[in-house]
């Protein structure tokens, strides 16, 4: 599944889901993962919104799903929690089947194998519900094995339910990324994945490591294990879009086109979150679609959106990507 063309990833799942459930998502300790249990129809509808607006890739709504989270906040037992995670993946499959049926009925062609369903594997910090996915502070006191053991349960549930790859995403610290990549190489040698870091500025991860150093460390780790073909891309998500180009230049700026590390990017809309007033500044946001050519030029193979990006934003990103892919074919 080496990526030959630039692919369109979906947008912010919790953001688009508000179209179906209202603004009851933010502030919940389970965030959008609660609705996997309480409103599965809204999960399917949200996936469909993205597919109908041109997404090649949808991420399962498992970012904040965890056994301990479900046991604590939904009062499920371990077995029921694992089953809920598997069922969440099945909801993405239902949406995909509905979409493909719609396409067939409308005589629209879809490339074979698409859309892809990729499991969202959010960071250890997401289930702590203390904002530490944006600081990575837990890397200073939680051992790597505890982190990978925690991830393993959810990863296995998603793999069992059937996904095309894993999105290891919003990772704030180099240690967690390295531990996960080592675990995947050792224990799941056939599984494809990408790694997307959470960065606090145009140079550094949330925890303080340099993005280029962390990304290169992952790429070298994969090279040592002869496993670079397992990694679809390395990149960033849930960041301000203005940080992306400098981050990518720091990694791929001096590499020839053929030597570039494949990149993935799905930033926020450009709005800034204020604890008191919520998201601010939509009117000043530069449309994400306008960044597509520069990000693709720097090696981006997957482009989509994260927080505050809706299905309509994905449609515009998709149009820009299709123009780029056409240009590359002609050149």
TrEMBL record:
<keyword id="KW-0479">Metal-binding</keyword>
<feature type="binding site">
    <location>
        <position position="238"/>
    </location>
    <ligand>
        <name>Zn(2+)</name>
    </ligand>
</feature>
<feature type="binding site">
    <location>
        <position position="307"/>
    </location>
    <ligand>
        <name>Zn(2+)</name>
    </ligand>
</feature>
<comment type="pathway">
    <text>Amino-acid biosynthesis; L-methionine biosynthesis via de novo pathway.</text>
</comment>
<dbReference type="InterPro" id="IPR036589">
    <property type="entry name" value="HCY_dom_sf"/>
</dbReference>
<dbReference type="InterPro" id="IPR051486">
    <property type="entry name" value="Hcy_S-methyltransferase"/>
</dbReference>
<protein>
    <submittedName>
        <fullName>Homocysteine S-methyltransferase</fullName>
    </submittedName>
</protein>
<feature type="binding site">
    <location>
        <position position="306"/>
    </location>
    <ligand>
        <name>Zn(2+)</name>
    </ligand>
</feature>
<keyword id="KW-0862">Zinc</keyword>
<dbReference type="GO" id="GO:0008898">
    <property type="term" value="F:S-adenosylmethionine-homocysteine S-methyltransferase activity"/>
</dbReference>
<dbReference type="InterPro" id="IPR003726">
    <property type="entry name" value="HCY_dom"/>
</dbReference>
<keyword id="KW-0808">Transferase</keyword>
<dbReference type="GO" id="GO:0033528">
    <property type="term" value="P:S-methylmethionine cycle"/>
</dbReference>
<keyword id="KW-0489">Methyltransferase</keyword>
<feature type="domain" description="Hcy-binding">
    <location>
        <begin position="1"/>
        <end position="321"/>
    </location>
</feature>
<dbReference type="GO" id="GO:0032259">
    <property type="term" value="P:methylation"/>
</dbReference>
<dbReference type="Pfam" id="PF02574">
    <property type="entry name" value="S-methyl_trans"/>
</dbReference>
<dbReference type="GO" id="GO:0046872">
    <property type="term" value="F:metal ion binding"/>
</dbReference>
<dbReference type="GO" id="GO:0009086">
    <property type="term" value="P:methionine biosynthetic process"/>
</dbReference>
